[in-house]
Amino acid sequence: MDKTTCGFIGTGRMATALARGFVEAGLLTPAQMLGSDSYPSAADQFKATTGAQIATSNGALVNAAQIIFLAVKPQHMASVLAEIKPHIGNRHLVISVAAGVPLRVLSAGLGSEPRLVRVMSNTPCLVGQGASAYCLGPNATKDDAALVAKLLESVGRAYQLDEGLLDVVTGLSGSGPAYAMLMIEALADGGVRCGLPRAVAQGLAAQTLLGAAQMVLATGEHPGALKDQVASPGGTTIAGLAVLEQRGIRSALIEAVTAATNRSKELGQAAANKS
Length: 275
Prior knowledge:
The chain is of the alpha/beta class. It has helices spanning 13-24, 40-50, 58-64, 77-84, 103-110, 142-153, 166-174, 176-193, 198-219, 223-230, 236-247, 249-274, and strands at 6-9, 33-36, 53-54, 67-70, 93-96, 115-120, 130-136, 156-160.
């Protein structure tokens, strides 16, 4: 990707996580990246964090870049598409990371020329541990798919899926880091309640979730089987698990994913109605 320029329209947390991740992985240099944002403070923070330059406008960014990441809020997508459409051509690969915005909305806003890819990723891309899924638009090529996979896999794991499943990805891994942070916070609070220093409790809680996740990925075993390996008869773990089951943590997490999925669908429909 030596001669490729990548532009980010919208420079919030997701754009920053991806851009910094690409640099950390050695795929792009700061000189190969541009950003633009309607909020100058966000653009300044993006520049400070990633080293990228800030374009004078969205149109100028599109003219200078070959890969365009659309990282704006869903409710702002229609106006951004209208602004950049005159500058978009078939030389562009346009990658949307906006939650819930379907490919048909992007196609309606940009016309038939650009190659489109829709991505759902998450903020752990910032530390090379992202969980992403993507689907291809009608003009996207096998080379485009390979490039998107290379970019996303440089900052974590990536799965190519049918577009109909991306709202579920939004509800699971897109929103999932917040669920995990809540669990880390709660586990740490439990440790503090029982006498641990706050820093120690937080470190133990975070490392515990990290280690458990790595065990699932490394072994390929069902998490229930791994759970049973920890829960010895009459021991401490099964006592704790019984409380979690009584309090409904399993159903609460299932319902959280379902609620976030449904909200993603609502955002997509609202974006479609505006297009």
